[in-house]
Amino acid sequence: DAPVTLKILQKWVPRVSHYFDKDHYTYVGHQIVIQESIEHFGAVVWPGALALSQYLESNQEQFNLKDKKVLEIGAGTGLVSIVACILGAYVTATDLPEVLENLSHNISRNTQNMNMHKPEVRKLVWGEGLNEDFPVSTYHYDFILATDVVYHHADLDPLLATMEYFCKPGTVLLWANKFRFSTDYEFLEKVCNIFNVTILAEFPESNVKLLKA
């Protein structure tokens, strides 16, 4: 099937807001307040997170997350993990140590009063200590979520190894990314060499592609 062409919906902004460091979004009928930080790439909401959040909300029959085990790698601000929680998943949100405090804050404030599975926040450095921290005998995920994890950095091989490590038979990888550089497409080619890849949707105005592997 040809990928669907979509637009990323604008975030909902309240009429009066006293928060200059927070963004407001509405997904699955819930207002989500995200605190960002300009100190880290991982503490900003990027277009891929908006695209995947929107897609998960609109395609719940195709990708039913209720009671599924979901791992988000490079969770950043936690927006996608929060949406997955609202949709009923058992979520583990992971990122680098320096991002975890802001990530934990966002996930806690947006899920603490809801009737859902309690999400977990954990450190994950791509390609490092995978079998020690997430042994295959114990950890199996139905879905791996990743958004804008590919940009101009040197960790693409460890990222690919991490994706491959967690994607066991029956696991679905949903990856949304803004394609900016030739290295992004080179990484996509490597992913296609390992996984069975389908482009689910494209968001042309933001150069975001959403892929299932």
UniProtKB/TrEMBL annotation:
GO biological process: methylation
Coiled coil region boundaries: none
Database matches in SUPFAM superfamilies: S-adenosyl-L-methionine-dependent methyltransferases (SSF53335)
Record's keyword terms, sorted: Methyltransferase, S-adenosyl-L-methionine, Transferase
Pfam families according to UniProt: Methyltransf_16 (PF10294)
Single GO MF annotation: methyltransferase activity
Entry protein name: Protein-lysine methyltransferase METTL21C
Species for this entry: Podiceps cristatus
